[in-house]
């Protein structure tokens, strides 16, 4: 994005992200910027099937929205790494698996959701 439209446009997109995400999440869900252009979304008491459903809804919502930057509407997509946290597992391992899933989604051509288990 920054290479094509410039850093100011990238910043405009990042500022629009929370508004787009809020269209999909429930009040109990938590979203935080994780770094760079990555966001971490916590979906309390949600099994992996529900996590995947929300991730797909987010992906479709982003795909349908444009961010206006000056006179330029910018199309945006997301790649998502979905993972279910289980209390019997280590939180750090869960986050690492979600990150692996994210990189697999990006490597698969982007604009996709990859879910996996660290069983």
Fold and architecture overview:
- With 119 residues, this protein is of the alpha+beta class.
- It has one domain (2-115): Alpha-Beta Plaits (2-Layer Sandwich).
- Helix content is 45%, strand content 21%.
- A hairpin with a 2-residue loop joins β1 (30-35) and β2.
- The model has no long low-confidence stretch (mean pLDDT 91).
Features:
119 residues, alpha+beta, Alpha-Beta Plaits, two-stranded antiparallel sheet
Summarize it:
By secondary structure, the chain is an alpha+beta fold. The chain is built from 4 helices and 6 strands. A two-stranded antiparallel sheet has the order 1-2. It has a two-stranded antiparallel ribbon with strand order 3-4. It has a two-stranded parallel ribbon with strand order 5-6.
**Average pLDDT for all residues:** 91
Rg over CA atoms, rounded to whole Å, is 15 Å
Q: How do the helices and strands follow one another from N- to C-terminus?
A: HHEEHEEEHE
Distance between the termini: 35 Å
Q: What is the CATH level 1 assignment?
A: Alpha Beta
Quickly count the helices: 4
Helix content: 40-55%
Query: Which shape, going by the Cα principal axes?
Result: globular
Overall tally of structural domains: 1
